[in-house]
Write a structure and sequence with these properties.
Elements (H helix, E strand, L loop, with lengths): L1 E2 L2 E2 L2 E5 L7 E5 L4 E6 L5 H10 L1 H10 L11 E4 L2 E7 L7 E4 L2 E4 L6 H28 L5 E5 L6 E3 L4 E5 L7 H13 L8 H8 L5 H16 L3
Parallel strand pairs: 3-5, 7-9, 10-12
Antiparallel strand pairs: 1-2, 4-5, 6-7, 8-9, 11-12
Helix pairs in contact: 3-4, 4-5, 4-6
The protein binds zinc ion.
Length: about 220
């Protein structure tokens, strides 16, 4: 659909439990998602979209730029901007040098290799800290997984499995440190009680600053890759 000269892709969802038509920005397509309750038709959804056209166009124009895994892309590594460069002959996999992330091999494999490498680095950076903190607290980590979790930066299961977003490798070290501390502290208290926060704050973190940083930068980091 065209709104104010802008092509806006629309995805429809049906949700029997929805009580009204819900319109939200779709980060994946730079468009919108219209969630329709049982009683609503697509045209009723479109009517809401036209009504909110100004808001939608404003929001879409304000989205941070998308950063793709390609030659010349600039992406943060522990908050330092790095240029992605293709070094076909380097035979060194992926490596970091002179403010660049260099990727060897065929260009068609660059996105995949870069993605794998970022996940590997995230895992290393996160695991080392997590095991050290867990050891200090006398708790046991069952398993650590690193994935592309859209809605959260980390989570902790009652069985002691920790999960983190690979995107933390793009955040400053002290922010990554806070997210790891938060999840490890859940191994002691699986809630957000005062006792839980006392454990977090004992792990040498800047809780408030880190939470604020995440609030301000989540959208930007979600748009990489
Ligand atoms: Zn929590």
């Amino acid at each position: 659909m065209e709104l104010d000269g802008m092509q806006v892709p629309i995805r429809y969802r049906r949700n029997a439990k929805a009580r009204q038509i819900i319109l939200r920005i779709d980060q994946d397509t730079d468009g919108v998602v219209l969630t329709l309750p049982k009683w609503a038709s697509q045209s009723e959804g479109l009517a809401l979209l036209s009504e909110k056209a100004d808001w939608v166009v404003d929001r879409l124009r304000c989205l941070p730029g998308r950063v793709l895994f390609e030659e010349g892309a600039e992406l943060p590594y522990l908050d330092e901007p790095h240029l992605v460069r293709h070094f076909p002959e380097a035979r060194r996999g992926v490596f970091r040098q002179d403010g660049e992330i260099r990727v060897s091999g065929g260009y068609e494999y660059l996105p995949r290799r870069l993605d794998d490498w970022l996940r590997k680095m995230a895992r290393a950076e996160i695991s080392d800290r997590a095991y050290l903190m867990a050891h200090g607290l006398g708790v046991k980590i069952e398993r650590i997984s690193v994935r592309d979790t859209r809605s959260r930066w980390g989570s902790c299961s009652p069985t002691g499995c920790l999960s983190f977003s690979w995107r933390l490798i793009m955040a400053p070290e002290w922010v990554l440190h806070y997210v790891v501390a938060h999840e490890v502290a859940h191994l002691v208290h699986l809630d957000h009680s005062a006792k839980f926060w006392a454990v977090v704050n004992g792990l040498n973190v800047r809780t408030d600053a880190a939470r604020e940083w995440l609030n301000r930068n989540t959208e930007r980091l979600q748009r990489v890759g």
